[in-house]
Amino acid sequence: MALIRAFEMRIDALFASGRIRGTSHLCAGQEATAVGACAGLRPDDYVVSNHRGHGHFIAKGGEPRRLLAELFGKQTGYSQGRGGSQHMACFEIGFLGSNGITGGGLPVAVGAALGLMLQHRSQIVLCFFGDGAANQGTFHESLNLAAIWRLPVIFLCENNLYAMSTHVRDAMAIEDVAIRAQAYGMPGQIVDGNDLLAVKAAVAEAAERARGGAGPELIEAKTYRYLGHSKSDQREYRTEEEERFWHDRDPIKLFAAKLREQQLLDDAGLARIDADVKRQVDEALEFALQSAEPDPEGMEGWVFA
Amino acid sequence: MSDVLTYSEAIRDALAEEMRRDERVFLMGEDIALYGGAFRVTRGLLDEFGPARVRNTPISEGGIVGAGIGAALVGCRPVVEIMFMDFITLAVDQLVNHAAKYRFMYSEQARVPLVVRTPAGGHRGYGPTHSQCLERLFFCMPGIKIAAPATPADAKGLLKAAIRDDNPVLFVENKTLYAVRGDVPSGEEALVPLGKAAIARRGEHVTVVTYSEMVVQALKAADALEAEGIRVEVIDLRTLVPMDMETVLESVERTGRAVVAEEGHLTGGIGAEVACRIVEKLFYQLEAPVRRVAGMDVPVPVSQPLERAALPSATHIAQAVREVVGC
Fold first, then answer.
1. pLDDT tens, residue by residue, A114-141
2. Which of A89, A157, A158, B295 is a good FRET partner for B245, with 20 to 30 A between their CA atoms?
3. pLDDT tens digits along A30-48
């Protein structure tokens, strides 16, 4: 979680200082959902992500250096500079990709689960998406398909209250995305998205049920993003009061407090972690800056396999 | 070795052969299982392959095409049927922003061996949302191959090739062609590579470039024109992406006159692109402007006189040929 936080905050700074071009959708504040969910899966399970996918990717095993190289558009990036922040994948580690279409990954996750089931494999698929995507047609089609075919897919909604600047109360007539599970005939639950262990437990249980043939599940993780939707977002649609409320429930602070309580972590230990993640992010930046840019020669040949 | 089969039977044969050959191939579509598909193309496949591999779906075109993409990513080779090509618009995002782009944006690790097969075409009074030829929507988007067979042999051969291709392939069938009979080779001889046009008829006066059911119309027109002393060469494109321009250009260079024909609307159609390519390469060899024959820029109406007026046929092709010959 600390690594993801350090990574995202560094990217924020790099954008602010004009050192990266393009755009990025940062997940600072939502670390517990990403890390908890991936921790609840088996390493060989699959994950489909969305536009706000750096945390998902790192939690699944993505290397910060290659992620950052991708943001800098370098040849050494996960997509060789072609995809950028929101179009990265690493099939080797089961990360089937982030993508820039809200709700676009849901049918793909369903298909991956279908494919695994047809091949009698024991892996499952977890699909990350947000409260905004829960209103896209693909959400509804995907949950329905997963339910009728009893597919091994976990739909994990990171409800951070806003789809860009639109509050959930203006986008849905219901309070919780989780109740939509009933409409499609699958279990649904709400979990505290800022409680790492709660997210992990919920996903782990759902994963074992899915692996056992019980079919899909919808988990809604209530969480919050600290930064704007993207780099140009000034967050005028949120109150300082609301932001303070969620900062007080910072997932990293909460987990650190738990560890301290159980005497598994002290100030020195925390300082070591902070220093270590800073070093990793520094190293990732160094790697990205040193890497070469891709050569456009032959680009038309990259379209087809 | 060959059999005489209908276009529809040839497609079914291709599906069955590829499913026997490779257990990763499976079918998804609305009413394709017991019902056998709206046009009965998949009739009988459920009995041989079972409901897991001949999978009926709810009405969720975007969902099922996306599911095809996901299944392809984890090693399957799905063939998704879109009942009428008109409905493919429900799946445009998954095709254009996902299937077409994964290879490029995720780099060489990504492969999407998905086939989407669907019948296009009017002339049956089905009306504006059940008669369209929408290959144009994908023709201009890099990352999707498009095959459009005109004969039973090519239907079987190109579908086999499409299923074996590691890229997304849009397989455009035609409702009128389903009943057409023809010789179809058996086994591996049946394979027709993507990206190769066929010279359906040789002639030295005018080249007519076309595909799908309009090949039948072009051949009819050629027969009529032969009696007038005009010998028409008909190029059946067979694949729109990648398109075999070499065969087209070689022919037009010989004849000096070209007519490009399609059933879809005139504006921004396949013909617009092909005509432009011909002019770019062969301007000084052309004896006449390149003419296009296409559907009117109107939705396809139901009433027969209206539909006949809105859609092109052999008559329109023959007329266009006479015009370029007259120049």
1. 999 999 999 999 999 999 999 999 999 9
2. B295
3. 999 999 999 999 999 999 9
**By C-alpha distance, which of B30, B22, B27, B24 is closest to B11?**
B27
CA-CA distance, B163 to B146, in Å (whole number)? 12
pLDDT value of position B52:
98
Type and span of the H or E element at B246: helix B245-255
Is B166 in Cβ contact with A111 (below 8 Å)? no
Would you state the pLDDT for residue A119? 98
Residue B195 forms contact with A (CB below 8 Å): no
B193 in any annotated domain = no
* Three-state SS at B222: helix
Closest CA to B67 of A252, A112, A213, A202: A112
ipTM value > 0.90 = yes
Q: What is the pLDDT of residue A163?
A: 97
Residues B248, B165, single domain; the answer is no
Select from B255, B313, B119 the least CA-distant residue to B234. Answer: B255
Express each pLDDT in B28-48 by its tens digit: 999 999 999 999 999 999 999
Residue B130 domain boundaries: 2-188
Q: Are residues B67 and B112 in the same domain?
A: yes
Q: Taking all residues of chain A, what is their mean pLDDT, rounded to a whole number?
A: 97
Q: Which of B17, B18, B81, B130 is catalytic?
A: B130
Nearest to A172 by CA among A187, A157, A185: A157
Task: Give the gap in angstroms from C-alpha B313 to the nearest C-alpha of chain A.
Answer: 35
Is B13 exposed, middle or buried (CB count within 10 Å of its CB: 0-12, 13-18, 19+)? buried
Q: List Cα–Cα distances, A139 to A181, B39, B55, B59, B229, in angstroms.
A: 11, 30, 21, 14, 61
* pLDDT number for residue A211: 98
Q: What is the mean pLDDT of residues B133-141?
A: 98
Give per-residue pLDDT as tens, A185-218: 999 999 999 999 999 999 999 999 999 999 999 9
Phi-psi region of B116 (alpha: psi -120 to 50; beta: other; left: phi over 0): beta
Residue B61 annotated in active site: yes
Residues B112, B57 within the same domain: yes
Dihedral angle over CA of B149, B72, A52, A196, nearest 10: 160
Report if pTM > 0.95.
yes
Query: What is the C-alpha to C-alpha distance for residues B123 and B143, in angstroms, rounded to an integer?
Result: 31
CA distance B217 to chain A (A): 33
Cβ atoms within 10 Å, residue A140: 18
Q: Do A91 and B64 touch (CB under 8 A)?
A: no
In a domain, A273, yes or no: yes
Domain hosting A227: range is 2-290
Task: Identify whether residues B223 and B183 lie together within a single domain.
Answer: no
Number of structural domains in chain A: 1
* Nearest partner of B170 among B151, B149, B187, judged by Cα: B149
Q: Does B58 touch chain A (CB under 8 A)?
A: yes
Within a domain: B246: yes
Percent of chain A with pLDDT over 70: 100
Within this chain, do residues B147 and B235 fall inside the same structural domain, yes or no? Answer: no
Answer for the pair A223, A194: CB distance below 8 angstroms, yes or no: yes
Q: B69 and A108: CB-CB below 8 Å?
A: yes
Query: What are the tens digits of pLDDT across the range A235-292?
Result: 999 999 999 999 999 999 999 999 999 999 999 999 999 999 999 999 999 999 999 9
Catalytic status, residue B273? no
- Is B327 a residue whose pLDDT tops 80? no
| CATH number for the domain harbouring residue B90 | 3.40.50.970
